[in-house]
Structure formats: structure tokens, C-alpha cells
Queue: 2 jobs
Job 1
Amino acid sequence: EVQLVQSGAEVKKPGESLKISCKGSGYSFITYWIGWVRQMPGKGLEWMGIIYPGDSDTRYSPSFQGQVTISADKSISTAYLQWSSLKASDTAMYFCARAPDDTTMVDYWGQGTLVTVSS
Amino acid sequence: QTVVTQEPSLTVSPGGTVTLTCASSTGAVTSRYYPNWFQQKPGQAPRALIYSTSNKHSWTPARFSGSLLGGKAVLTLSGVQPEDEAEYYCLLYYGGAQLRVFGTGTKVTVL
């Protein structure tokens, strides 16, 4: 059974750093892309970027380039999304999702990680 | 900035049919945008329904179908069930730096 299990909710202060995770199981982690999606409170879905764990090829949507870092550790089948200095506007639910390639399809989703940034 | 537009809300009666559309600010949506459709219920992660315009995942109910019509991607729900009440999002692939862009979402109410 394909599963993407994300790390738990986080509460942080502005300026702090954070790294959240997405662990894949039930499939060959290195042969599928992992994308990250933001959903701000009461808002729609936003595509942030995508990584291919096999060779760490990473692509960012323009709105998120330079704002976050996407990485992966294929030895433990885990992808990451990290911030070096959080802002209140980073408060959102973040989802990871699996993509067999970087164009045609997104299939399985993680359960989401709620990040709250507040002073 | 590319904008992908969907109807904000639609209402359908149980057993009825509803059509959702997905339009791109760059022009006509074609199969090369590989339209995907997702369903999201409150408090849940999105669930994939359709990929590459009209292909269903193994778990997608038969009453959901995807197509292209009039320069837009289309999701049709036939024989709507109460459990279909949800937010629906399309996702288009633009390639290059744009990667993928989600639509604005459509809230479907079954009433």
C-alpha cells in the first residue's frame, strides 16, 4: 500500500527555522517525484515545487523560489520542506504528493502538516 | 502570473449532473496541459480523481469523468451522490518555470 506520512503539527515564532518531512512507503521512493502544496487557512491549493529523490532534481514555482528549500534523503525514503526564517504568512497546511513524472499525474497525498507561525 | 479559473460554487440535486470547468489565463487548455482534478473535503487531504484530461485512478468512481470542451478542461459528475459535496480543484502543467498551477477551486453543494 502506497503511503505518504508527514510529520506532525508545528508551532513556531517568526524568524525561527523549520523542516517538515514526508516519508514514502509501499513503492520505490527514488523513482517517483514528490511535490509540495500549500493551503493557507480557508484558501485554495498552491503548487510549491517538486523533487525527484533519485537524483535530487528540484524545481520551484516562481512564487516559492528562494522562500523555501525542498530536499530528499533517499536512504530513508523521506522528502523535506524547510524554511530558514519563518514569517506569520507561512502559517498554512502543507501537503506532499507523489507524482510518477513531472508532468502528467499526481496520485497519492500525505495527510498534511499544519504549520502555525505566531509571536 | 498565470491564473487558472474555476467556478466559485455550483449547486446540484442528488442524482443530477454538474459540470465544472477549468480555464487558463494564457489561452485554451489542451491535452498538453495534462489536466488533473482533485476532490477535497473539509479537514482532509485532497484526493486525486482524474489525470491527463480524462484518465481515472483505480479508486475514482465511474460517475466522475474528465474532458476538454471549448478551450477548457471539464470535470463532469453524473448521478451525483451526497458524499460528492466537496471542493474540487484542477491542476494544469505549464512546463518551464511555471511547473504546475492549481485552479481557484469550485465548491460543489449537493442540495
Job 2
Amino acid sequence: GENVEQHPSTLSVQEGDSAVIKCTYSDSASNYFPWYKQELGKGPQLIIDIRSNVGEKKDQRIAVTLNKTAKHFSLHITETQPEDSAVYFCAAPNGPLGYSTLTFGKGTMLLVSP
Amino acid sequence: DAGVIQSPRHEVTEMGQEVTLRCKPISGHNSLFWYRQTMMRGLELLIYFNNNVPIDDSGMPEDRFSAKMPNASFSTLKIQPSEPRDSAVYFCAISKGSGTDTEAFFGQGTRLTVV
């Protein structure tokens, strides 16, 4: 099955700085990579995803980049705000698309200090 | 979160007791997942249903765990007998299609404490 490694496990930044979270995956056939944000006491929520036919995708202050050759993808948050503080999870499909499931990274706790 | 209602939100039980966690998904999503979240192991998939049929239960840790989905709007996860190491937050999630290339909507979770 898929193996997803996520780094760092914790990340502290000052408000306004950028934050980068990186993930690697093992299955070269994987072609869908979502990122989820989990706030305290809530379930994870999708914030952005990317498919393997593109190398980068942006949505306002959030962007995801994908390097299929190296089998890694990253989440970039610019101009961080205190409300960005949460746990972020990357994920990759566990098997070919169809009847398969997602494998999640262990998560990154992001703390944005005012 | 409004698309998936989980109950109870918190459950404290004694070791050896039976625990039943409930999930009520909104209609139109034919994939349903049960996850367990702990600090040590992160988010682990326990079981995956598609069109109410269990497709992958390889994540169910032991025979003490069982899950059912009698219809499209209800699913349960049962632990019998419960043990302290089962303490975790259990999430139910839904998505359309097969579930791996579309957004998954998570409930708010059930925090289970087994003492």
C-alpha cells in the first residue's frame, strides 16, 4: 500500500510569514493529492487538492506543488494569519483510483503567532 | 461538518463494555469511511463502504471491532469488549463516487475514552 511521510510535525511561524509543509509518497501510480486542515475539536476539512496532470495549483494564499518524478508534494501558505493555526494533513490514494482509499500523513501542527 | 452527524460526541466507558458509535450521512454520497485518530498513529482508516457494502475492512484492528451500514443514511461502529487502548477520536467521513479522487466530508468525531 501507499506510504506517506509528512514533515515537519510541528511548525511555528510569525504572522505574515510563509509556511511550507512537505510530503512524500511511495506509489508512483498515485495521481491525486489532497490537503486537509483540522481545527481543534473538528473533523478534517479539504482545503486544496492537486491531480498529477498539473505541477502547481493556487487558491488565494494557499498553493500546492507536485513533483511526480521525486514523488513529493508540498503545501505553501503565504501571509499566514492566526486563524491558519491548525493541524494539516496530506494524503495520497492507497491503490489505483476506483475502489481504493486514502492514506494520510501523520499531520503538521502549524502555530501562527500574532 | 453538517453533512455528517456523529453521535455521541463524547463517550466514557469502562473496560469490557460494549460501545456503539453512530454516523448519519446526508444523501447523495455513496462512499462512507470510519477513521480512528490518535496522537501516536494519526488518522487510520478502519473500514470503507461503497453503496452500503463493505469494500475494505483491512484496517479493523481486531475482531472486537465491527461496522455496519444497513442503509445509505446510517452506519455504526461497534467495539465489544472495549479496552483502554481503544481510546481515540473516531471519525465518520463520506464522499461521492469511489471516494479517493473527490472531497471527503468528515463528521466532528466521537471522542472515546475507555477507563
